[in-house]
Protein-glutamate methylesterase/protein-glutamine glutaminase
Amino acid sequence: MSPRARVLVVDDSPTMRGLIKAVLSSDPGIEVVGEAGDAMEARNAIKQLNPDVVTLDVEMPNMNGIDFLEKIMKLRPMPVIMVSTLTNRGAEATLAALELGAFDCVGKPQPGDPAPFAHLIDSVKAAARSKRHHPEQAGSGPAAAPYAAPSDYQPSRKIIAIGASTGGVEALIAVLTKFPANCPPTVITQHMPATFTKSFAERLNRLCAPRVKEAEDGDRLEIGRIYLAPGGSQHLEIANQTAPRCVLTDGGPVNGHRPSVDVLFNSVAGLARNKAVGVILTGMGRDGAAGLLKMRQAGATTIGQNEKTCVVYGMPRVAHEIGAVGVQLPLNLIGEEILKATTITSRKDRVA
């Protein structure tokens, strides 16, 4: 029997600490070993209790969660799950935390929420099992030379589809910042709360050479554009209405997620077939594995992130095991591989 995950709950609200403790304590595989109301208390508790996982409030008095997280990652790296309000301000702070190396983010429940912290238990267990406690450990040994797309890069007539979950913020930044301004049209499903995806798209747009936006129903897929599925209530698919477009569709969660990576990959397999590249990155569960297999069976190039560089080797592992992954690579080589697979190699590849 696996040892229980030992958790320290950090939040300035006694009510919120109590709710988080109650949710986590309901699972026999988790033990809440302590609570703290601010960064000073949390620092002392970490020293005394040596928890496996810390849940950390973003907004706290004296020292906010982001500043405290930065100190943790520098001085005593460990898995930290950020607990944030589902607001624009909370989203910006949480994205900063994920870039600093937070394991995951969960939204604070809203009034009337029937299942508060529905994914917190799974996230804590995955964090406790993870081998990676610091962002630098996501590397693949000696750092590879920085990659830049060739100055004469010309995109072929392909669509890039990417799926990610836990750890996906860092992973997507690592991949997409290697894309040139004229990259092929790229569609992404990243498991993330609704408010967060717009902020994340804006963050990516500031960091990347192509233009990045939260996908809207009817957006035409264009060269140099990246479309991020909006979180929450709809799935992102692509369809051809004289030209490939983003389509937001209703429907229940698939593999527990909405938007679902499988839904996106299935649509790309059906429309683009061998004129596509599918990429599955770090994440819990199995969402995207079956869809990536359909893409590979349709003739698409398929790429999976390797275990060593994943925050959670879940989705890529399942995809690899069922034969969906054509090539498995460390994170720092995936952007380069995508561009190699989408560059013009013959006249028939040229964009119309």
